[in-house]
UniProtKB/TrEMBL annotation, chains A, B:
The active site is at 141 (nucleophile). GO terms for molecular function: 4-hydroxy-tetrahydrodipicolinate reductase; glyceraldehyde-3-phosphate dehydrogenase (NAD+) (phosphorylating) activity; glyceraldehyde-3-phosphate dehydrogenase (NADP+) (phosphorylating) activity; NAD binding; NADP binding. Its EC number is 1.2.1.59. It holds the Pfam family DapB_N. It is found in: Cytoplasm. The lineage of its organism: Archaea, Methanobacteriati, Methanobacteriota, Stenosarchaea group, Methanomicrobia. NAD(+) binds at residues 13-14, 111, 169, 300. Homotetramer. The keyword Disulfide bond does not apply. Keywords: Cytoplasm, Glycolysis, NAD, NADP, Oxidoreductase. This is Glyceraldehyde-3-phosphate dehydrogenase. Pathway: Carbohydrate degradation; glycolysis; pyruvate from D-glyceraldehyde 3-phosphate: step 1/5.
Amino acid sequence: MSKVKVAINGYGTIGKRVADAVQMQKDMEIVGISKTKPNFEAFVALDKGYQVYAPADKLKGMETGGVDASGTIEDMIQTADIVVDCTPGGFGDENKALYTKAGVKAIWQGGEEHELAGCSFNADANYEEALGRDFVRVVSCNTTGLCRVIYPLDQEFGIKKVRVTLMRRAADPNDVKKGPINAIVPSPIKLPSHHGPDVKSVIPHINITSTAVVLSTTLMHLHSLNIEMDKQCTAEEVADLLAAQSRIRFIGQGITSTAEIMELGKDLGRPRGDMWENCIWEQSVTIDEGELYFFQGIHQESDVIPENVDAIRAMMELESNGARSIEKTNKAMGI
Amino acid sequence: MSKVKVAINGYGTIGKRVADAVQMQKDMEIVGISKTKPNFEAFVALDKGYQVYAPADKLKGMETGGVDASGTIEDMIQTADIVVDCTPGGFGDENKALYTKAGVKAIWQGGEEHELAGCSFNADANYEEALGRDFVRVVSCNTTGLCRVIYPLDQEFGIKKVRVTLMRRAADPNDVKKGPINAIVPSPIKLPSHHGPDVKSVIPHINITSTAVVLSTTLMHLHSLNIEMDKQCTAEEVADLLAAQSRIRFIGQGITSTAEIMELGKDLGRPRGDMWENCIWEQSVTIDEGELYFFQGIHQESDVIPENVDAIRAMMELESNGARSIEKTNKAMGI
């Protein structure tokens, strides 16, 4: 069987990780990645054997910078069956025209609106909805993290109401331009935040209200969740259910913070120290007055990576069953 | 009328602020403060004209360090009608024996347990309970901030359930020994946190569940609140009620973070730039599906200061009416 040809448009935090995860799979391969600047990431991409492409007006700059580009982004798209668009949010419409013209499928990330793709994706919750589709949006890291816990809890116990406070990292670790370095920033100030509706773009019937703040940290997001469920259940039943999910990792063993979770990712030998799973503190899973509470850490740079791989598999109909795709992705990545 | 004589045992973050606030009042005065080390705070205290006392075994060190101490802590207590104990948490029992022996009234801070004093105090919620008492505990900064909003909302609309995520600063700005500098620390991991029960030590019938984390910031705590009320009401009605409370300040005008709130405190000319009031983002006050949400910033170094002054007034029966004490305190401090 020939492998599905995947191009990565935008080789930043998410793009470079998706490229490596795709390359690990048996049924897909990277045919090219795009960069706009000849920086260290472009050189590492070449070292890894990826064909590097660039916007037409940046080719000269790439050459000057010593990066041997294989052609334009349009050239790259021609070689692909599907493009994973990891460009910064806001270029959606422009790029959609490009992909449509080339007759290539495309995946966007959570920075774009649901309407652009018409299908917002989480592998656990709605894999089948993406089967054969031309355009899919893999929801953001926070929404992915929420869907991964909300979907199984709703299936098992029925969800009446989710209330969540999202504590977001200020910037990714390599981003030296953003703050805050010493403040708490309600974001948005006007409540509720967009994260609740974004979960509903994947699981429409969920009743969820979210609030969010931005913090002086770069390592992970943290969610403080409160969930009312239809069926009464114990903390042990919830813990057993969540622990059985392949993209949820229970943490304990002296881990007291997001910093130690990321240290664990490095100690485990994960590529870039990534922690692809929701990290739930087992000890935090509590039923108080009939309502569920727990804390989970979400690694903003990497939790959507396996979801992108599954989205490719669904859209290219490499696998009709979501659970089997998840199993393949996990096995290849080592989750 | 002779002024009530107040001694401050422990002249750190809270103690030095209580001293200055007491000194501003017409009906009370500082007769001494205690220090254990001859550091800059001791020198500033002398400059302000406070008598500085020290534990007997530290007097020599004070002298060597150039601080002219007036005597031991036992000596200081002899001169006072009431002691405000701002020593680090955990010395409660020991100090209580000292105060009892000297026949002096005492106030502890939120670091001590409710049982030590038998009365946990918030000026709005239970001033009358402290009238004439020998021992009172002024609840912590976070609990004070919660009581200030919960009490009036409960009086006006009836509170069914409070759910709150407390995002706590890592350390005070002058504390260079604590972290985290880049992490989110669920604290406690085991839920719910003690803050809910602490609110109940002041307003026993409130149904409240809290979760808390510690963050990489020094400036303020931030609370993300969700409140279900008995009576239906609009966001405007809630905003009007909260805006009418003298120790709640509504913020807007381009303030997007805790850092800008503290900048405002400095620009207003507040002593030490303190922000004694709960700072609620007006725009955040929202009713969503019948439930109230809002964000408030709590200045951990200073919000309990006016409460300590009111506690003195209640215990010494300088004023039988809580609202009138609050008015006197606020006027003298410039709230």
